Amino acid sequence: MFDQYAPFIIGSYAACIAIIGGLALYMIADHRAQKRALSEIEARSPRRGGGA
Amino acid sequence: MRLRGRALAANSGLMPTTNATFWTTLANPGFFMRWSGLLLPWFAGATALAFAFGLFMAFFTAPADYQQGETIRIMYVHVPAAWLALFLYAMMSASAIGTLVWRHPLADVSQKAAAPIGAAFTLVCLITGALWGKPMWGTYWVWDARLTSVLVLFLVYAGIMALWRAIDDPGRAARAVSILTLVGALNLPIVKFSVDWWNTLHQPASVFRMDGPTIHPTMLYPLLVMALAFMLLALMMHAYAMRTELMRRRVRTLQILEAERLDRAAAA
To answer: Which residue of B has its CA nearest to A18?
Structure first.
């Protein structure tokens, strides 16, 4: 399909997917970790106006 | 209709109620979290649609170039990545000014969130450029002014990310990073005009030119659609990363409060 340039073209798109996809996966994992940490710490914290 | 829309939005808690508080509310992280949470799924859909359309055009409707042949298809990822590398750095520079001058509460969050995304697009630009260079120039790399200045841009991004990690206090880190970002911004015009100022192997600009694009529309339109798809993806990733950073800061604040509370309880 891409003549003799196929390895370079496929390599370019694969590199793009690997780099941007890798970053996206890392960002999703980081987001989930922060969300989990936030819900854990909020569950431990005393409620505002909760008295005693 | 506009007033009615604003009133409805205000009632829903998504918009400031008066014009006087409009700009201050925009700077509110809570306001950003609510709006970005609503918009992100729409951005994701628009990004997927733009990529589907752009990739179809890039692979099936765009012709091979008369000189470069099929390698022209590398341009549809290389050029948008290069534009975004510069755009995200320019955005970080604007945020750095926002941090240093106005101390805008979201400016340093925006700056921190943009750095890895900008670095990733710069890396994509460098790698795809090298993969295009081998069959066309006969080499993966030359120390040409454009290539070298883009490599410097990548190293500046890496330095900024390292500096964010090196300083614990987010306020101090933001000020130090802002200064580094603004110093690094001097490289942006060098990247852009390197092909005009020096005799480079890299070709001169062919889209953003005073006399209009020199690319044939059959190749220009797929490039523009791919650039739109990349831009939507970058903006979506940026908003998502900002949301994560705001959560990280909230966790840090709550951890400090919790530690203080435990200290007081232990002392009592």
So the answer is: B124
